[in-house]
Amino acid sequence: MALYQELQRLSSLTPIILLVAKPQVDQGPHIQKPVDINELIDLIECTTSTASNEAPHIVSKSPQMKAILKDVKKLAKSNASVFISGESGTGKEMIAKAIHHYSKRKTAPFIRVNCAALPETLIESELFGHEKGSFTGAHARRLGRFELADNGSLLLDEVTEIPLSLQSKLLRAIQEQEFERIGGMKSIKVDVRLIATSNRDMQVAISDKIFREDLYYRLNVLPIHLPPLRERKEDILPLTEQFLQRAASSNHTQLKTLSDAAKDKILSYPWPGNIRELSNAIEHAVIMSSSDIISADDIALKIKCETPPVQLLDEMQKHMTLLEMEKRLIQQTLRSHNGNRTRTAKVLGISIRTLRNKLKAYPELGQ
Length: 367
Known about the structure:
alpha/beta; 3 domains; 11 strands; globular
């Protein structure tokens, strides 16, 4: 332990993995003898990919973001769970990274799990790991994200996409800070700080039995809500400058500037995709513009509204049930996006998995 602390003091940027006979509390990233090569590879990839001493650069010119960053530095000192809510593209992952950076765990791993991108059959193994032979295809023991995040922070991105059947095991792992791998008999103790995010209305998710209420309150000890970009317009131009520099660097082009008309166009647009959409629009403009000054015409914005048409609701009969309205809304949104499920899910504010499940429930939609 003394050696580990001394190595950290000498170079906090150098990833350190200890080879130990018996794990101890606050030991840092470690692997127990005898060494399993697959576990070692997982741990090396995890430790080297998260080792950074730099705070994420978060633009905070607006009063809302200044207040949020002030809160981030306060709550980072705690070990309590954090729940970050907000629309897609508002920067929830960046805030999670900032919490980790300002915490005492900053030199330990920061592990992210994209819950929406994982098939339901793989989420348990991804979170908790598995033993060799525990299921078909489990050819070797594999560490889960909880183990890889030991002494660090674990980000559960879009946590509401975790299946209800697995949420009780997740709740126990958070409460007890211990779990078993799939196919394992031994309880594994960890010291992990949980950060969860969601773009959903959590009260609706709870009432619809999509998410356990007790799990939500366990995660929502320290809540943070990120406002959409349209509600913090003071951040739009500073973010644009940041994206101009990034696009010039990544595309090896000269740094470009915006014309006044381009700035007006950017400021007047509602940015339904938030920061992510702004970043993409600026990179597109940098690549496509033939001048050092980006004009309004160079900025390709989705002029058509990205939300389902309001008139659709007006057309619906007042005696329709909620399920019938949902079915109609999905059908019309799919049609307006030529059957593209990814775009439809984004417009409806749900994950692609949720849309897929709803389409299974409505086979008459022909999807």
